[in-house]
Amino acid sequence: MTPNLIRQASVVLSNLLTFSAPADAKLGEFFRNNRDLGIKERAFVAESVYGVLRRLRFLSTVTANDENDPDDARKLILAWLLRVQGMSIRELEPVLNEQQKEWAHMIKAKSTDNLPLAVQADMRDWLWEKLVAQYGEAEALAIARSMHEQATLDLRVNTIKGTRDEVLAKFIAENTSGVTNVTKTPYSPTGIRMPNRMNIGRHVLFTEGKIEVQDEGSQLLAYLVAAKRGMMVADFCAGAGGKSLAIGALMRNTGRLYAFDVSEKRLHNLGQRLKRSGLSNLNAQVISSETDPKLKRLNGKFDRVLVDAPCSGLGTLRRNPDLKWRQTPQDIAELNVKQTNILARAAKLTKVGGRLIYATCSLLRDENEQIAELFLATHPDFKLLNAAAILAQQQIELDTGNYLKLLPHLHNTDGFFAAVFERFDVPSAQKIEA
Length: 434
Description:
The protein is an alpha/beta fold.
């Protein structure tokens, strides 16, 4: 650690604290503009700024000795090192100037007894209140604290090109990149977990298309779709296509799989991943919106339709801690309108006897159960299926009830929600009444 490295981390953090763009995008831009930084220096900058974002409300409390400058980035980095990482002032003294030493003593001495629970949770009041209303104080705090930890690196083995045992054996055998404690994920049959972060993008298993980076919760969503060989399946909000690729592998490269998205850039990224994957049954299509006229000819055609809906992303705070500071109640309300509209349109694509799967990476009932309940109330030709039963049919023992509900402190995944609806034929008289 050097004075210059602390200064650079502070510059990056100061930029991120404007919350004008996603933190990962801003951090990536900084690294592209500072290519002279070594691997360890990059790691320090990334870990310190993300560490501060995870604990921002707590750290703001221990650095605020006056009203003028409570969120000085240099103070926050120091507070993270001293109060979260547990470093001593003696360890840091050689790289601190006189003013910073003064700050360090003030930060170390600051009492944190009897902090409000929202500060302990490191969340804005509105978000904390929503979580308490849903989960109660004790579990809300457990969820919040689990989000203070860095996420594990989860990989999905592409079963078109290899088996989990083969990939696991290769990682364990090489052990040259500091890869330790590589294990099978507890729920996903195709998942591998690495507790330490590593750059997997140049690994031969990645370049050959045998593995993809994908959180275990996201992998489980592909199993919840439960697509069988020869089916016609739509991933309606495909993004960069991680779930599309997982579904395609489970279909054993048969049938027809459509990946729809409004972003040409995201689908372009899917195209690059598709080449590595060895899949030939996937067709990516850009749409203008969920009401794109080209979708009309596909109404009632699909055996499975996955709606991984645009959402707040509040289940991914281990990876994207800036979201809890960037999102607002107004954002959630606007997303609810989108989620309702997209799900209603996707329902039209689902054939009688087919299934519609609604999913988010959110913790909030507003985006999850509330949307599912509204959908059932307005669509009498759909019924809710039991998510645990669908997973059990595939030898996945994970029972969270009718809905799939994954939480970091319980399942060591991102926060995920999913509901599975099945379409059935409603007699004409009932349709008229509805």
